[in-house]
Structures are given as C-alpha cells and as structure tokens.
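We now fix the convention by which a protein and its fold are recorded. The integers have meaning only within a learned vocabulary of local backbone shapes. A record is reproduced here so that you can trace the correspondence yourselves:
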Amino acid sequence: MQIFAAFRSTVTRAVFAGLALTLSAQPAFADKSAENFVQAILDEAEPALSISDRDEMFAAIEVLVDKHVDMRRIGRFVLGQYARQMTDEQAAAYYPLFQRYATQIYQNTLSDYAGQRLNVTGSVDRSERDIIVNSKIENPEPGDPFANAVIHWRVYRSRDGDMTVVDAGADNVWLAIEQRSQFTSIIANNGGGERGIDALIAELKNRVN
C-alpha cells in the first residue's frame, strides 16, 4: 500500500507550500541527540522489516509504534480547533480508535521498506522541542521506487528531555498534516462541534480493521 504516494496526490498545494515556507524560515541547526534517537528506532526497526510473514511484521511494527510514537499528542493535533470541543465520552471512544487507525497507516507505510535499512542523514532543529530528522534507504536496489526518497521523522522533546515521534512523512508530505485535513473536513461537513466529532468517530470505526 503506497501510503506516501497517495498522500502526494491528496495534500493541497496550500498545505505543502505553508509547510515548506515554515521549514525554510527556520535556522538549519542539526540536533545530534534527536538524530541518535531516530537512528536507534531505525536500527530497532530493521529486523522487524526483515520478517517475511506480513502479520508478524505488522505485529513487530505495532510494538515499535506503541513504544516510540506519541499517539495521544498526534490524535489531538489532527482534530485542530475541534479538540477543545470533544467531550470526555467522545475522547474515550476517539483516542483508542485513532491509535488503531494511525498504527495501521504506520504498518502499511513502513512495510513499503521491507528488507531495507534506513539511515539518518541529518536534521533541522526548528526549536528546542521540535526537530525534523531525515533518513534515506541505505544502498537501495536499482529501480527501487523509494531509492531517492527522503523519509522524515518529526521529534518532540519534552521539558525533561524525553523524545517521541509525533509525525512522519516522505519528501515533505506529512502523515499527521494530511490526517488533520481529512478529519477537520469530516467534522465540519457534519455540522462541527460534538455532532461532527461523532461523525468522525463513526468514520474511524469504519476505517479500522
């Protein structure tokens, strides 16, 4: 499932241009600690991506996602302005569904790199707590469609120095940004507020296997 390829065709030009402008406006300071953090995850992922059985590979990827990706933070981000309008009951239904939905996206996306090794190539320290780490396939095979792809990892550093992944993407197309565009559209098209959030929850139930 070529998730990133699909995202390239669905993300609006406005979103892409806005992100590119934001990134280019930031000082290009490297962050070695964030690079080491991401490389450790990629090293941990390498054996998982070498598993021949798809179900076993997906199970191993899920363990990595649960360990390193801050789904709660992402789940709130993708709701945009509607996050503050969600009731406690809706939150109890939404966050587990979102985690399963987003995990499936990570599973399908990372499986595109099955049998490959990803290496960190650099980073951009956008702020003390917001870092973009870039990676590429090591020694890709001739004709590999992802041979020249730059895979991005957005890292959040807490005040205590702990780091988690809060977004991923390829060639400046980002998963969470696309999800936010989709989710807020669903909510808005169904009346906004609690009613629209109920519609999003129903849609997530349909999307989760």
Notes: The longest helix spans residues 88-111.
